[in-house]
Design brief:
alpha/beta, Rossmann fold
């Protein structure tokens, strides 16, 4: 069973529908107790980091999710959910993340392309053998919507990058922790490959 975490700040319906279409046994979980039987966890997110991570914590999900990851349960963070995986975000103040991966979330620099980064852009595959990206061709297009990006401290955690005025980490992974900045549920065939890879891990 795959648990999609509903803490009031996620784009749940399309994620749930895509996973169901791919044949996954999916449950939307609104309380931490719902994670007890989860074989995998999906952490979606839209909006601002501070409001989102606070809603996540106030809903009581932080410790159960971290305990599940510690026990080896695969976790996939999507969009803002990927940013939560890191140490800190500087979106509208300074906000502590889940500290599962070292790095920070910062705004695209002034003088670069228009912010937010909205639309289709390419995934430059850095680690094609990672199970999340098997079958995803280098240069594949995915759909993005974000104003802040991840600066990962360890390049070994970065399995794909995207260029938007600079190269940034757009897909990350370490052991059973995965994150993707784009919206795979809106990225058509490429997004379906990525989500199916997660389902079948």
């Amino acid at each position: 069973m795959i648990a999609v975490v509903d803490y009031g700040a996620g784009n749940l319906r399309s994620v749930y529908n895509t996973l169901t279409y791919l044949g996954a046994d999916v449950v939307t979980v609104k309380s931490p107790d719902g994670l007890k039987d989860a074989e995998k966890i999906v952490l979606p997110g839209v909006g601002a980091f501070g409001a989102g991570i606070n809603a996540f914590r106030e809903s009581g999900f932080e410790k159960p999710v971290l305990d599940a990851v510690e026990a080896g349960t695969p976790l996939l963070g999507i969009c803002l959910g990927m940013q939560y995986l890191f140490d800190v975000s500087y979106e509208m103040g300074e906000h502590k993340g889940l500290e599962l991966l070292p790095g920070q979330v910062v705004k695209f620099p002034e003088g670069g392309p228009l912010v937010p980064h909205i639309g289709w852009n390419q995934l430059q595959i850095e680690q094609p053998d990672n199970p999340l990206l098997v079958g995803v061709p280098d240069g594949s297009y995915a759909y993005f919507v974000h104003s802040y990006y991840v600066e990962a401290l360890n390049l070994s955690d970065v399995i794909a990058t995207t260029n938007y005025g600079l190269d940034y980490a757009s897909v990350v992974a370490r052991e059973n922790v995965f994150g993707i900045q784009c919206h795979p549920e809106k990225s058509q065939h490429v997004g379906q490959i990525i989500l199916k890879n997660f389902v079948e891990m």
